[in-house]
Design a protein that fits this description.
With about 325 residues, the protein is of the alpha/beta class. The protein is about 25% helix and about 20% strand. Among the domains are: about 90 residues, Alpha-Beta Plaits (2-Layer Sandwich); about 110 residues, Rhodanese-like domain (Oxidized Rhodanese, domain 1, 3-Layer(aba) Sandwich). The strands form 4 sheets. Strands 4-1-3-2-5 form a 5-stranded mixed sheet. Its EC number is 1.14.-.-.
């Protein structure tokens, strides 16, 4: 068993004072030595964090003890080390930026548990719709799923016409962890789709609980791992190397900081072209050192996780004092 855990979670539950709770939550993460990205919004909480097993267990217990977050479902994965380099706890208007005029607490698609989804996905009356960005589904998606050429969920209204002819079908939406589908499925209902479902817990939970059958390729994740395997039943590769066209599910960020494109690059091309997607990028004088991972965190001089924490009086607090 690996010593670290990666936790993926979200919950739509009103937070009355997001700024105050952000401070409390950041302090909790500091005390438990967690790293990751967490969004606090008036509508709820969304995060991915990593830490030692015991610290992650304490974190989950603390959130479940809060009546607002008692219903959080954590997707828990093992890791050899931290999946993040930094800790960011931020207040934003939404826990997933969509600008869609919907409220998942009032209306959303019918939730399907992984086993229910596995049984239904091949029904001829069912259509699967991927609600993720184009670079995400480029490296992995369900067999036969409809995908949109969109950069983010805000663009969904521009693409709904592409599935207008499927309104008489059972539409099952899916995404990485389920959070986008809460709003996406609600939006489809508002646009006249009658039978709208969503994969509860997303691709990650489906892989963990139902074996990931018929998910081709890898699942893009927003941490140092970049992609993770999902299908333990009938895995297949759907993407090819951006450079040479060889089948590969290995995704990187281009080593050129000006470019930073998400591309699939085989190991051989990664080594030969030092993690770049084009010769122009390879000649970038500010090329980042390629270590084979293809992940580059933003560089911040003298970074410390405490930098994002301020006391309610607005004064920076030393970590030593926080641990007293």
């Amino acid at each position: 068993m690996k010593p670290y855990r990666v936790l993926l979670y979200y919950i739509y539950s009103p937070i009355e004072n997001p700024e105050q709770y952000r401070e409390e939550h950041h302090l909790l993460c500091l005390q438990l030595n967690l790293l990751g990205r967490i969004i606090v919004a008036p509508e709820g909480l969304n995060g991915t964090v990593s830490g030692l097993t015991a610290d992650c267990e304490a974190y989950m217990a603390a959130l479940h003890a809060d009546p607002r977050f008692a219903g959080i479902e954590f997707k828990v994965d093992e890791a050899d080390g931290h999946a993040f380099q930094k800790l960011h706890v931020r207040v934003k208007p939404e826990i997933v930026h969509s600008d869609l005029p919907v409220d998942p607490l009032r209306q959303t698609g019918i939730h399907l548990e992984p086993e229910e989804f596995r049984r239904l996905k091949n029904d001829p009356d069912v259509v699967l719709v991927d609600m993720r960005s184009n670079y995400e589904h480029a490296v992995g998606k369900f067999k036969g799923a409809v995908t949109f050429d969109m950069e983010n969920l805000r663009e969904l209204p521009e693409h709904v016409h592409e599935i207008e002819h499927l309104k008489d079908k059972k539409v099952i939406t899916y995404c990485t962890g389920g959070i986008k589908c809460e709003k996406a499925s609600a939006y489809l209902l508002s646009q006249g789709f009658q039978n709208v479902y969503q994969l509860h817990g997303g691709i990650i939970k489906y892989g963990m609980e139902a074996g990931g059958e018929d998910f081709d390729g890898q699942c893009y994740v927003f941490d140092n791992r970049v992609t993770v395997p999902v299908n333990h039943v009938n895995p297949a590769t759907v993407s090819t190397c951006y450079r040479c066209g060889t089948p590969t599910s290995r995704m990187i960020n281009c080593a050129s900081p000006v470019c930073n494109n998400h591309v699939t690059l085989c190991e051989a091309c990664g080594d030969e072209h030092v993690g770049t997607c084009s010769d122009n990028c390879k000649n970038d004088p500010n090329l980042r050192p390629y270590d084979g991972s293809g992940y580059y965190g933003k560089q911040t001089q003298s970074y410390s996780p405490i930098q994002g924490y301020k006391s309610r009086q607005g004064q920076h607090t030393e970590l030593a004092l926080l641990k007293k």
